[in-house]
Amino acid sequence: MNGNDDQCYPVINVEETIGKTVGSRKPRRALTQLTSRKVDMERWREATGGVGVPRGVYRFTSHEEADAWMRRNLVATAVKRAS
User: For the whole model, what pTM was predicted?
Assistant: First the structure.
Protein backbone atom coordinates (compact mmCIF):
# COMPACT_ATOMS: atom_id res chain seq x y z
CA MET A 1 0.00 0.00 0.00
CA ASN A 2 1.17 3.44 -0.78
CA GLY A 3 0.28 6.70 0.98
CA ASN A 4 -2.50 7.62 -1.51
CA ASP A 5 -4.78 4.66 -0.63
CA ASP A 6 -6.14 6.30 2.53
CA GLN A 7 -8.01 9.02 0.62
CA CYS A 8 -11.82 9.01 0.71
CA TYR A 9 -13.69 8.80 -2.58
CA PRO A 10 -17.43 9.43 -2.99
CA VAL A 11 -19.55 6.32 -3.35
CA ILE A 12 -21.75 8.03 -5.94
CA ASN A 13 -21.00 10.70 -8.48
CA VAL A 14 -22.68 13.78 -7.04
CA GLU A 15 -22.06 15.76 -10.22
CA GLU A 16 -24.09 13.35 -12.39
CA THR A 17 -27.53 14.58 -13.44
CA ILE A 18 -30.54 12.36 -12.90
CA GLY A 19 -31.77 11.07 -16.24
CA LYS A 20 -35.22 9.79 -15.34
CA THR A 21 -37.52 9.80 -12.32
CA VAL A 22 -39.93 6.87 -12.06
CA GLY A 23 -43.11 7.32 -10.03
CA SER A 24 -44.02 10.07 -7.66
CA ARG A 25 -44.93 10.42 -4.02
CA LYS A 26 -48.17 12.01 -3.04
CA PRO A 27 -48.40 13.56 0.40
CA ARG A 28 -50.85 11.85 2.74
CA ARG A 29 -53.81 13.87 3.83
CA ALA A 30 -53.55 14.48 7.54
CA LEU A 31 -56.57 14.68 9.79
CA THR A 32 -56.95 18.22 11.01
CA GLN A 33 -59.83 20.37 12.12
CA LEU A 34 -59.92 21.88 8.65
CA THR A 35 -59.96 18.60 6.70
CA SER A 36 -61.97 16.30 8.99
CA ARG A 37 -65.57 16.55 9.98
CA LYS A 38 -67.59 15.32 12.93
CA VAL A 39 -69.58 13.08 10.58
CA ASP A 40 -66.36 11.31 9.54
CA MET A 41 -65.39 10.79 13.18
CA GLU A 42 -68.81 9.34 14.01
CA ARG A 43 -68.61 6.93 11.07
CA TRP A 44 -65.18 5.71 12.18
CA ARG A 45 -66.48 5.20 15.72
CA GLU A 46 -69.46 3.19 14.41
CA ALA A 47 -67.25 1.09 12.14
CA THR A 48 -64.63 0.29 14.79
CA GLY A 49 -66.89 0.17 17.82
CA GLY A 50 -64.97 2.90 19.59
CA VAL A 51 -62.04 2.48 21.90
CA GLY A 52 -63.86 1.41 25.04
CA VAL A 53 -61.50 3.15 27.44
CA PRO A 54 -62.59 6.05 29.66
CA ARG A 55 -61.29 9.43 28.55
CA GLY A 56 -58.90 11.37 30.67
CA VAL A 57 -55.33 11.48 31.88
CA TYR A 58 -54.21 8.63 34.10
CA ARG A 59 -50.97 8.21 36.00
CA PHE A 60 -49.57 4.81 36.86
CA THR A 61 -46.57 3.74 38.91
CA SER A 62 -45.51 1.06 36.40
CA HIS A 63 -46.20 -0.26 32.92
CA GLU A 64 -47.64 -3.42 34.44
CA GLU A 65 -50.22 -1.40 36.38
CA ALA A 66 -51.18 0.52 33.22
CA ASP A 67 -51.49 -2.73 31.22
CA ALA A 68 -53.71 -4.29 33.90
CA TRP A 69 -55.94 -1.18 33.95
CA MET A 70 -56.21 -1.24 30.15
CA ARG A 71 -57.11 -4.95 30.10
CA ARG A 72 -59.81 -4.46 32.78
CA ASN A 73 -61.41 -1.64 30.81
CA LEU A 74 -61.25 -3.41 27.45
CA VAL A 75 -62.75 -6.60 28.91
CA ALA A 76 -65.50 -4.65 30.69
CA THR A 77 -66.36 -2.86 27.44
CA ALA A 78 -66.38 -6.12 25.47
CA VAL A 79 -68.69 -7.75 28.03
CA LYS A 80 -71.00 -4.73 27.99
CA ARG A 81 -71.21 -4.80 24.17
CA ALA A 82 -71.80 -8.56 24.03
CA SER A 83 -74.81 -8.43 26.34
Answer: 0.43
